[in-house]
Design goal:
The chain is of the alpha+beta class. The chain contains 6 helices and 4 strands. The strands form 2 sheets. Strands 1-4 form a two-stranded antiparallel ribbon. Strands 2-3 form a two-stranded antiparallel sheet. The radius of gyration is 16 Å and the shape is globular. About 10% of the residues are buried.
Length: about 130
């Protein structure tokens, strides 16, 4: 959703799970769990505006659960950026044990720079991987 929509949901008492890498990371990352956040800062703006902590997390084996046909990374990226559709063929969904790694909640001053917050969260997620 939008930053405003997410802030409204949090202010109404909802809990959100935001994936900064989104579909791009799901489609284009590999078994090394490379983060592909492309300088995303919306999630940090949401947390700052709603005055809520960010809990970094990593799901182990998530890449193994759904396998896709190996395309050229360049072609796959081009297709996604042009269409914004997940058009990479999935080989299958496989039963694997998923393990969630949760970091400690990160609290920020609402005056913090969203880029600084995003960088800090990125580093914490990388530590969990």
């Amino acid at each position: 959703g939008t930053v405003n929509g997410c802030v409204s949901a949090l202010n109404a008492g909802e809990i959100l799970m935001i994936y900064p890498g989104g579909l791009r990371e799901s489609l284009l990352s590999d078994e090394n769990y490379e983060l592909i956040w492309n300088a995303r800062q919306g999630f940090s703006r949401v947390a700052l505006e709603a005055d809520v902590p960010i809990i970094p997390f990593f799901t182990e084996n998530i890449r193994e659960a759904a396998r896709s046909v190996k395309f050229s990374a360049r072609l796959a990226s081009w297709l996604y950026e042009k269409t914004r559709l997940p058009i990479i063929p999935i080989i299958g969904i496989f039963p694997v044990e998923l393990k969630m790694h949760l970091g400690r909640p990160l609290n920020f001053d609402d005056e913090e720079d969203p880029k600084v917050v995003a960088d800090m969260v990125t580093n914490r997620v990388k530590q969990l991987i």
